[in-house]
């Protein structure tokens, strides 16, 4: 690269973004859910939400042409950018050439763990953070892989569909509260940092997005003895949202345990006709312990 490269417009600048796409003749693939962010205000919000330190290692999923990657590399020790689309590799090689702390990995993130990605960079002195503009159609599997892996990030900053983000942060009693809310909130503190209009992307998606920040608990407020059973109970209680808690539990535990289940709910101070969305995470933990003997 010429010595003039660092003085160019940021990759995220709409003028430069369009020039890069034109230079390489890049065509978006709908099957990969490709929507490139061209709003510098939103990029700033993502960077702020990541709460970056100079010693951090950031894994970026879906770097696109490097708009956010560039902003991250200016602030942290190491950026590992995971890109599934081989067509973007030559573009990234050029746009990110001025930075020596970026490693681009051509990989499907669902087929490679964080432990494998980070192995060449051990020991890692700072925090591990994940920043991603996730395709809507695989948001949930990627998110849970990141949350539940052997190597667990200190913070995740995810650009996802606004409606999904609202479900994740929802609390008991809200219409959006459900198994997804509980599955995330038992592991990490969740909050929406920014609502992002669809006009911030090219091409424009059909819906608005949100910057979701997930921060690992220093010490989890939830003590779950059997995670698999807890997940099973929670999923069952939201399986048919129109049904009350007792009916969903009967489907899980068997109709022959009706009397025992009614007694358990009474002992927990829960009416038989209460619905799953009314229960707190603590109440689901208590419920799991109480009905565990009926689950096979």
TrEMBL record:
<keyword id="KW-0949">S-adenosyl-L-methionine</keyword>
<keyword id="KW-0698">rRNA processing</keyword>
<dbReference type="InterPro" id="IPR029063">
    <property type="entry name" value="SAM-dependent_MTases_sf"/>
</dbReference>
<dbReference type="InterPro" id="IPR023165">
    <property type="entry name" value="rRNA_Ade_diMease-like_C"/>
</dbReference>
<feature type="binding site">
    <location>
        <position position="133"/>
    </location>
    <ligand>
        <name>S-adenosyl-L-methionine</name>
    </ligand>
</feature>
<feature type="binding site">
    <location>
        <position position="108"/>
    </location>
    <ligand>
        <name>S-adenosyl-L-methionine</name>
    </ligand>
</feature>
<dbReference type="Pfam" id="PF00398">
    <property type="entry name" value="RrnaAD"/>
</dbReference>
<comment type="function">
    <text>Specifically dimethylates two adjacent adenosines (A1518 and A1519) in the loop of a conserved hairpin near the 3'-end of 16S rRNA in the 30S particle. May play a critical role in biogenesis of 30S subunits.</text>
</comment>
<dbReference type="InterPro" id="IPR020596">
    <property type="entry name" value="rRNA_Ade_Mease_Trfase_CS"/>
</dbReference>
<comment type="similarity">
    <text>Belongs to the class I-like SAM-binding methyltransferase superfamily. rRNA adenine N(6)-methyltransferase family. RsmA subfamily.</text>
</comment>
<feature type="binding site">
    <location>
        <position position="62"/>
    </location>
    <ligand>
        <name>S-adenosyl-L-methionine</name>
    </ligand>
</feature>
<keyword id="KW-0694">RNA-binding</keyword>
<protein>
    <recommendedName>
        <fullName>Ribosomal RNA small subunit methyltransferase A</fullName>
        <ecNumber>2.1.1.182</ecNumber>
    </recommendedName>
</protein>
<feature type="binding site">
    <location>
        <position position="35"/>
    </location>
    <ligand>
        <name>S-adenosyl-L-methionine</name>
    </ligand>
</feature>
<dbReference type="InterPro" id="IPR011530">
    <property type="entry name" value="rRNA_adenine_dimethylase"/>
</dbReference>
<keyword id="KW-0963">Cytoplasm</keyword>
<keyword id="KW-0808">Transferase</keyword>
<feature type="binding site">
    <location>
        <position position="37"/>
    </location>
    <ligand>
        <name>S-adenosyl-L-methionine</name>
    </ligand>
</feature>
<dbReference type="GO" id="GO:0052908">
    <property type="term" value="F:16S rRNA (adenine(1518)-N(6)/adenine(1519)-N(6))-dimethyltransferase activity"/>
</dbReference>
<feature type="binding site">
    <location>
        <position position="83"/>
    </location>
    <ligand>
        <name>S-adenosyl-L-methionine</name>
    </ligand>
</feature>
<dbReference type="InterPro" id="IPR001737">
    <property type="entry name" value="KsgA/Erm"/>
</dbReference>
<keyword id="KW-0489">Methyltransferase</keyword>
<feature type="domain" description="Ribosomal RNA adenine methylase transferase N-terminal">
    <location>
        <begin position="42"/>
        <end position="218"/>
    </location>
</feature>
<dbReference type="InterPro" id="IPR020598">
    <property type="entry name" value="rRNA_Ade_methylase_Trfase_N"/>
</dbReference>
